């Protein structure tokens, strides 16, 4: 085998391509190694088997998917506007992926079933982003909430239906998202504002 300089990013790129080609059930570590022209043992220096590698692919995919959400957190907007934009982005980012990259989205759905730790970490990240904006809103006097963590969980749960693939084809999807998000924001608002 030819010597190649390996790192996690190179392996993840190769694994993603192999998963795209064969699907997450049929693809294996040997396929990834073959595509990199290394022995499969070389990959075990970086990942402890197929599950570990597939989890890393899923985690990276989710992280890349939510780059726009991280940008929203950095915006110089009042919390109510920022929360509306964040929740709208959460709802639309997976739908856009399903439309623009259906093969990887389908693979993500299959991978996600076996990657509960990765999915839970992603959900926790979403809740933390919502909480950050709620805390900002409390500081600004826009939101009135005694328990920002619990409020963030409730907001996440109330909008999570829009990240499910079953909602992607709903003709009233955009209107429904806006209605739910506006209702949630009104519920968080300081009654004195």
TrEMBL record:
DNA-binding segment(s): 28-47
InterPro entries named in the record: Homeodomain-like_sf (IPR009057), HTH-type_TetR-like_transc_reg (IPR050109), HTH_TetR (IPR001647), TetR_C_27 (IPR041478)
Alphabetical UniProt keywords: DNA-binding
Residue ranges of domain HTH tetR-type in the record: 5-65
GO molecular function, one term: DNA binding
GO biological-process terms attached to the record: regulation of DNA-templated transcription
PANTHER family noted in UniProt: HTH-TYPE TRANSCRIPTIONAL REPRESSOR SCO4008 (PTHR30328:SF54), TRANSCRIPTIONAL REPRESSOR (PTHR30328)
Protein name: Transcriptional regulator, TetR family
Organism whose genome encodes this protein: Clostridium acidisoli DSM 12555
């Amino acid at each position: 085998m030819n010597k190649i300089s390996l790192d996690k990013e190179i392996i993840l790129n190769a694994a993603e391509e192999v998963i795209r080609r064969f699907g997450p059930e049929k693809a294996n570590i040997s396929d990834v190694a073959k595509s990199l022209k290394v022995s499969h043992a070389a990959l075990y220096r970086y990942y402890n088997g197929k599950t570990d590698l597939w989890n890393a692919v899923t985690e990276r995919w989710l992280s890349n998917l939510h780059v726009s959400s991280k940008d929203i957190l950095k915006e110089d907007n009042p919390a109510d506007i920022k929360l509306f934009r964040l929740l709208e982005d959460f709802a639309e980012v997976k739908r856009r992926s399903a439309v623009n990259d259906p093969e990887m989205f389908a693979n993500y759905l299959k991978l996600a079933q076996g990657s509960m730790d990765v999915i839970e970490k992603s959900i926790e990240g979403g809740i933390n982003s919502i909480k950050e904006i709620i805390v900002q809103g409390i500081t600004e006097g826009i939101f009135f909430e005694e328990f920002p963590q619990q409020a963030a969980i409730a907001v996440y749960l109330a909008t999570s239906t829009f990240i499910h693939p079953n909602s992607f084809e709903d003709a009233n999807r955009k209107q429904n998202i806006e209605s739910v998000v506006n209702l949630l924001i009104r519920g968080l608002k300081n009654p004195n504002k």
